[in-house]
Amino acid sequence: MTGAVPSPEPVLETSRLLLRLPRAADFEGYAEMLGDEETARYIGGSSPRGAAWRRFLQMPGAWMLQGFGMFAVTDKRTGEWLGQAGPWQPEGWPGTEVGWSLRRSAWGHGYAFEAATAAIDWAFATLGWRQVIHCIDPANRRSCALAGRLGSHRLRSAHLPAPYEADLVDVWGQTRAEWLARRNNRNV
Q1: Helix axes 27-35, 49-56, angle to 10 degrees
Q2: Angle 49-56/58-66 helices, nearest 10 degrees?
Q3: CATH superfamily of 12-186
Q4: Where are the domains of the chain?
Q5: Residue 92 CB: number of other CB atoms within 10 A?
Q6: In what order do the strands lie in the sheet with 131-136?
Q7: Nearest-5° angle of CA 82, CA 88, CA 38?
Q8: What residues have CB less than 8 Å from 185, skipping those under 6 apart?
Q9: Residue whose C-alpha is closest to residue 121's, from 89, 92, 100, 150
Q10: Which H/E stretch holds residue 97?
């Protein structure tokens, strides 16, 4: 595990979103996301409500033990939980990942790009990461396109740790220097 432990309650704000630590009230949206075959296809598959609760607890646990985890992504205007995005590095992971997953109702609005951009900025600035990766199923064209839009490029293929060891993913990524050069040149 890498990086410094950040302040206890980070909140990131973009033009439309708040990214904050997960709360119990977020579970309804999370359960909906994991109960939908299409939205859960590339994030470990759909889960019944009880299993979704156990998966939901991973992020608060990551925040508590590692000092980072995926943020709850909420609509700044309405407070609606849209999904999650942020740093993620469980044991055996192929690198320091910034990932994302959104409810189907949040697709197609640019929220994933906005949230991932804020999370990457935060991971480099606060955690001191030198590289971010995104582990993406090659069939997940939407996430591959988003990774490219973020400036990442396909680095290699990798197997994830158990229980997903049979899954071969494409590892996309970029260095801190690449990210900062792109941010300075294009004002991402």
Answers
A1: 120
A2: 10
A3: Gcn5-related N-acetyltransferase (GNAT) (3.40.630.30)
A4: 12-186
A5: 10
A6: 12-13, 17-20, 71-75, 81-88, 97-102, 131-136, 168-175, 153-159
A7: 45
A8: none
A9: 150
A10: strand 97-102
Q: What is d(CA 51, CA 93) in angstroms, rounded to the nearest whole number?
A: 22
Q: In the Cβ-directed half-sphere of 11, how many Cα atoms lie within 13 Å? A: 6
- For residue 87, the cross-strand partners are 98
DSSP for residue 126: I
Instruction: List the pLDDT tens digit at each of the 188 positions of the chain.
Output: 555 555 568 999 999 999 999 999 999 999 999 999 999 999 999 999 999 999 999 999 999 999 999 999 999 999 999 999 999 999 999 999 999 999 999 999 999 999 999 999 999 999 999 999 999 999 999 999 999 999 999 999 999 999 889 989 999 999 999 999 998 886 55
Distance of alpha carbon 3 from alpha carbon 178, whole angstroms: 19
Count how many Cα atoms sit within 13 Å of the Cα of residue 92 in the half-sphere of its side chain: 8
Which residues, including other chains, have CB under 8 Å from residue 57's CB and lie 6 or more apart? Answer: none
DSSP 16: S
